[in-house]
Design brief:
Blueprint lengths: L2 H33 L1 H10 L1 H29 L4 H25 L1 H8 L6 H8 L1 H17 L4 H27 L6 H22 L10 H38 L4 H20 L2 H20 L3 H37 L3 H10 L3 H16 L3 H21 L1 H4 L1 H23 L9 H25 L4 H23 L8
Amino acid sequence: MNKKSSFIKGTFILVLAGIAARIIGFFFRIFLSRTLGADGIGIYQLIFPIQGLCYAFCAAGIQTVISQQVAASVISNETSPRTILKCGMILSFILSVLTAVTLYKNAGFISSVLLSEKRCTVPLQYLSYSIPFSSIHTCICGYYYGLNKAGIPAFSQFLEQIARVLATYCVWIILCRNGEVFSPTSAVIGAVAGELVSSAYCMYTLNVTRMHKPDISIIKNIARGSIPLISNRLLLSVFQSAEAILLPFFLRKSGMSSSDALSIYGILTGMALPFIMFPATITNAMATLLLPAIAKADAGNNTEKIKLSSEKTIMISLILGIFCTGIFYNYGNDIGLIIFNNKTSGYYLIILAWLCPFLYLNTTLSSILNGLGHTTATFLFNILSIAIRIIFTIFAVPTLGISAYLCGILVSQFILCLTQYKNLLCYVHPDLHMADAIILPVLLIFISEFLSDALCTLLHFNGLYMLMFCCVITSVLFFSGTYLFILKKDIDI
């Protein structure tokens, strides 16, 4: 299989698995919104920035180093890829156990002091059990990415979501039969089950008896290579966690009660943002496989390959972003009311619809820059983006409320996109045509939505049938048009 086919196949596998997992996740979030309520969703969402910090410390950087060293070992044949994996897993597992114990013992302090919400204590304690399983899962996925095998990581992601949903649903049934209340803690049990199942599956795919003994020198190399990555990811996670923690706090400063602040936070992060992030499955999959492809082209001084890959992926990201802006802006209210039975989530979707082109494009731009070796630049750009949102949170939210934070998200993503693209132009000059990248997609989404709305009115559809019909017809018309008038010219990546 040639490189182009491998890239497309890998992207296709990751997209399919990502879409399947996110569809299941949507139904799961609908279930949680109905069983936990907005306040409970807020508590549930509030603990995950802490999980992100733990993940950044004990797994994320090590996964990247494992992937890089495994890919290099395939070419050099100097070290067994399985030895690299085993050494990385040992290091990550030790860090994850230390992290889990620390989180469990300090859950009360974190909840009351950092999160300002004591009800997060028990969920955090339960969440600590998932950290070692998550580290195993992450390391093995890094190993398979290094071998350019996307199937197993993709299926493990799908399996994790299935296990999470089934475990949570079983807990809900048991609690209902016993007349007990379904709480955020109950939902966290599902998250732990998901990590347990996915890590067990990943271990099953490996023949453990064929694993070589760990090499201390390799462990040291992985540790040295992961320190700067861990430092960057950790600092980035600290900023992201600070943002998540500060938002409910300053919403209370704006005059909201603690319950209302958590409800708003839950609606935004547990309902609206996941919908906005759903199409990012495609750009995330492209980014996962684009980074090593760009890195290889850069190592071979193949500037033409870098230029063409950049052009096509940027084009796809822009087209997808414009399409999603049209969908969420036009049908945001209907999605909020029909899917979540929540008018506020629809209002957030309409505002955040303008985020889509920048959000999806930023994923692609970050991957290209990282593939070119400019990881420090992308790290600093992301820190700047988060800092802008934090500034809006601290200085504008107490006066203007949640609307100020939504504006902060839009401003931060626009500036991130601008800085990353400007930085990319210093090394690569993508040949993008304004008509193909922006003007034609905008015209196509207007025409597609106008025709689908007119047809829906003619057929007297309403409610869920109206929403599904309009979205499907709009999608068919839009993507048929983009293929015929834009992508058909040259879709090589």
